[in-house]
Design a protein that fits this description.
8 strands; alpha/beta; binds 2-phosphoglycolic acid
């Protein structure tokens, strides 16, 4: 099976709800004929509004979820609530959350289980800090994250699990891994899935790169065989910039007749 590219806009805690619909709609219109699957992940407060824009290639994602199904968890949002709003994806394990909430990493395994049970697709984030990369330990670090966070998973559901490799030192810094460094890490991750869960799940799983992806650097990443898309922060707040990133992963360069 050929992997369909996936490009995700992670808006983080940016954009007011009153501006969100317009930006999401612009992204949807621009990416319509790209052949790439596009996900917009706004703050929770915007999800209901944006969910009406969904179609086959354009989905809405949340940036986090609670591990429990229901209960006395003030401030929590459950996977079933997201499903009820037609949210199809959840970003889990983003380094900004792991850093701000030190216990976050302890709950990721349960959050993955909750999402899979509810039928939500996961965009699972992993990546090493700068010192680890400099010390030459990036591969061990990332594979240990996978071991720990997927420890409760008995079989890999490749249509629901997507991985985003995001070196922490590249997020929001303007620095990026080289396309070769990213490709190597993606291959390591793919090989890890293959060893744990088999070759087919591994071959069918989309692995995205994230960390200062922009229109000016995306082509090199898109050209790599194991880079199946991007998780985009800052550049996703500008529709035409984001569209250039989507286009880089597109194999459809000609628009249907009559469309300009
Ligand atoms: P960035 O963020 O593109 O602004 O570096 C990526 C991310 O955190 O997902």
């Amino acid at each position: 099976m050929k992997r369909k590219s996936l490009v995700v806009a992670n808006w983080k805690m940016n954009i007011l709800p009153s501006k969100a619909y317009e930006l999401a709609n612009e992204i949807k219109v621009l990416s319509r004929y790209s052949g790439v699957e596009v996900v917009v992940a706004p703050p929770y407060t915007h999800l209901a509004l944006l969910s009406e824009l969904r179609d086959q290639n354009f989905s809405i994602g949340a940036q986090n979820v609670h591990f429990a199904r229901f209960g006395a968890y003030t401030g929590g949002i459950s996977a079933e609530m997201l499903v009820d709003l037609k949210v199809e994806f959840v970003i889990l394990g983003h380094s900004e959350r792991r850093e701000a909430y030190p216990s976050e990493s302890d709950f990721i395994a349960d959050k993955i289980g909750t999402c899979l049970n509810a039928g939500i697709k996961v965009i699972y984030c992993c990546g090493e800090p700068e010192k680890v990369r400099k010390d030459g330990d990036a591969e061990n670090y990332v594979l240990s994250q996978l071991e720990y966070d997927f420890r409760k998973l008995t079989h890999w559901q490749e249509r629901q699990l997507n991985i985003a490799y995001e070196p922490i030192w590249a997020i929001g810094t303007g620095l990026t891994a080289t396309a070769e460094q990213a490709q190597q890490m993606h291959l390591n991750i793919r090989n890890w899935i293959s060893r744990q869960y088999g070759i087919n799940p591994s071959e069918n799983t989309r692995i995205l790169y994230g960390g200062s992806v922009k229109s000016t650097n995306v082509l090199a990443f898109a050209a790599m065989p194991d880079i199946d898309g991007a998780l985009v922060g800052g550049a996703s707040l500008d529709a035409s910039e984001f569209n250039s990133i989507v286009s880089a992963f597109s194999e459809v360069f000609e628009l249907p007749k009559g469309i300009k």
